[in-house]
Amino acid sequence: MNGIWRRALILLALSTLLCLVAWPIFGATAAVGLFAAVMLVMVILHLRNISRLLCWLRDPKPDAVPQAFGIWDVVFAMFYRMLRHQRQSETQLVATLNDFRLAGAAMPDGMVILDQADRIEWCNPKAQQHFGLDLKLDAGQQITYLVRHPQFAEKLHSRNYSEPLTLRQSRAADLVLSVQIVPYGDRQNLVMSRDITELERVETMRRDFVANLSHEMRTPLTVLGGFLETISDANTADNDLLRRSLPLMMNQTHRMQRLVEDLLTLSRLETSGNPLHDERVDVPRLVRSLYQDALALSAGRHRIALDIESEGWLSGSEHELRSAFSNMLSNAIRYTPEGGEVEIAWRRRGDQAVFSVRDSGIGVPPQHIPRLTERFYRVDRSRSRETGGTGLGLAIVKHVLNRHEGWLEITSEPGRGSTFAAVFPEPRIIAADVAESLVQTA
Ligand code: ADP
Question: Quick check: 185 pLDDT over 70?
Fold first, then answer.
């Protein structure tokens, strides 16, 4: 017997006892009347508590549980406990859901939860960005209506999810995505997306690089191979043949050497574990020595002017700066026909320092300018080859300047000439007076 029944029986027994006591004193009618009155009061009290319970159930707040006594006290206490337990579970559920949302938002990959009919239930911000979704508008929509790629729909319906899918040009941007579908729960799916745009770019660069390099190496090797074959086929050593072929073979060998040297320089510059070792570079001295090299390279075919306006130095690598500046200079001489002019200058421009090479050469059509620093990019392939170019010079210049927080500025007009300027920011510059004191102390 539980407590509620016990209390009810005790109340009934007390009322009956009261009646039995009243019977001999007030008579039977009064005793029955008293019993009926007690019962009526009890019924009214129960009805009142039921009404309060109904009222409270319409908006059950734990802090507004009605006060009562007797059986109803127990009932209300039980309701209160149930409600509190339910509220605690709800709070826990909300906290878990929030944690899940925060974890989803922090994920570097996109995640879309689909229901059994492939409708979007939820997705994280990265997935919204990858697929151009808006969760508020798109929840409940078929994912294949929004991610409109035939391969994606095919994959989703094939139920063969072992391999990830590569999607190009998604709805949101020019992204390349790797999309993996993961089945879970009761025939539901998770769609995971990863941005592999950069990876794809690097892979394309690698492929192009290998193709370009193979192409560059093939010509000299074919020439060398051809000559060697002819010589070995000749029964006797033909001096005349040797005299004609040896310079050409040497020429091709030098070309391959230059190519390999430039490749090694580029690879050293690109190696992340090769930080720049800063030293104080006496740029005016460096530029004067490069001017002498330019005179030798031109061999009197050009008028070469030198303009050192600034005595400022740079903080950086002398070896790398020499390599960058000399590439710019040799280009000016190689792409300027005989009789043309070349001007080499080292100047201050506001708080920047500029090494520039201006020439009156063939110039570059504007559409080519943004691509000149790409490896193996040439405007005129045969002219570059004829003049001993490797197609890597400006790529080296760009890397060296990057490592010195500098940049390359190119202005050019076809048929009239070009200016290539290496610009260095303020923090790299050692002012002329400081440089002078360094010379004195040296
Ligand atoms: P290359 O070894 O072919 O000269 P670079 O990387 O040094 O390779 O230059 C890339 C291309 O930029 C050259 O092939 C050429 O078409 C163009 N170029 C560079 N410097 C000049 C210049 N001073 N005048 C005209 N064109 C130039």
Answer: yes
The verdict on the CB of residue 329 being under 6 Å from ligand 1 is no
- 152 in a domain, yes or no? yes
For tokens 């197609």, the residue is 391
pLDDT of residue 173: 63
CA of 103 to the centre of ligand 1 (A): 51
Domain boundary among 72, 95, 118: 95
What domain range is 420 assigned to?
279-441
Q: Are residues 157 and 245 in the same domain?
A: no
CA dist., res. 19 & res. 31, Å (int): 5
Ligand 1 centroid to residue 429 C-alpha, Å: 28
- Between the CA of 364 and the centroid of ligand 1 the distance, in Å, is 9
Q: Which residue's alpha carbon is nearest to atom 3 within ligand 1?
A: 391
Tally of structural domains, the chain: 4
Q: Do 289 and 179 belong to one domain?
A: no
pLDDT in tens, 45-99: 889 888 888 888 888 887 788 887 777 888 888 888 888 898 899 999 999 989 9
Taking the centre of ligand 1 as the mean of its atom positions, its distance from the CA of residue 378, in whole angstroms, is 6
Q: Is the residue at 101 inside a domain?
A: no
> In 3D, which of 441, 433, 437, 432 has the Cα closest to residue 311?
432
What is this structure's pTM?
0.65
Residue 32 to residue 17: CA distance in whole angstroms:
12
Ligand 1 contacts CB of residue 259 (under 6 A): no
**pLDDT tens across 261-314, in order?**
898 888 888 876 778 889 999 999 999 999 999 999 999 999 999 999 999 999
Are residues 186 and 205 both part of a single domain? no
Within a domain: 100: no
376 and 288 assigned to the same domain: yes
Does ligand 1 lie within 6 Å of residue 359's CB atom?
yes
What is the whole-number distance in angstroms between the Cα of residue 347 and the centre of ligand 1? 23
Residue 31 placed within a domain: yes
